[in-house]
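seq:
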Amino acid sequence: MSKRIIKHLSTADLVMGGVIQAAGAYTLKADIECSPFRALARAIAHQQLNGTAANTILTRFINTVGTIGEFPTPQQVLDAPEPTLRAAGFSFAKIASLRDLAAKTLEGVVPARDTLHALGNDEIIERLTQVRGIGQWTVEMMLMFQLDRPDVLPVDDFGVRNGFRLAYGLRKMPAPKALAAFGERWSPYRTAAAWYLWRAVELHRAGTLPVPEEPTKLPRIRRARRAVKRLKKKVRAKRANVRKRAVRARPKRKRAARRAAKA
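struct:
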């Protein structure tokens, strides 16, 4: 499978091929045993924290809320007093997210792994982002690292965007929509492409990232803001024309009124 992925990406994109040659074999291994509830609970713990701090909180969480060192169940999270969760290190916002995750897991909104496997990526994102504190990026990481989905490109991820900037010789960060359009060529292995873009950052730090022959030109994406500005400009112009016509019509109405009064 790895050889097939590398061949496809290298053939579809010469710059990506250079990154692959420098980075070596594709070694992403998904944790397929992790339940959706556990994966999302861990993601909530890691939000806005470094790995060491988040893991310390998770260890306390497991020891105080779980049973004999086992990861807590959704019901145990709902039953846990707020002071216990606070003592583990969770903020009030994260406690609210954990409890919402637990409730939605028991309700079936966050289903078991087998059910998720039957759903498409977009369906999973739509479903899991109903949980408080869970955004699209978090679900995309779950798709890649727990559900082993091969065709996920997290275009909002800073590391992916920065890796693309470095590998493809851009001065600025690529816009997410432009990166998504460019990344269509990597399908159906966009997860591997994202993994190699993360490696590109590491290669750059080590001074071993291949330099592209010329900067890559990204697809031009019509920005919604510009379209909105043009629409507003048209609306203002129409209103101005209406006011001008109204001003011009005033003398005519006055003359008509005088004639009527004389008659």
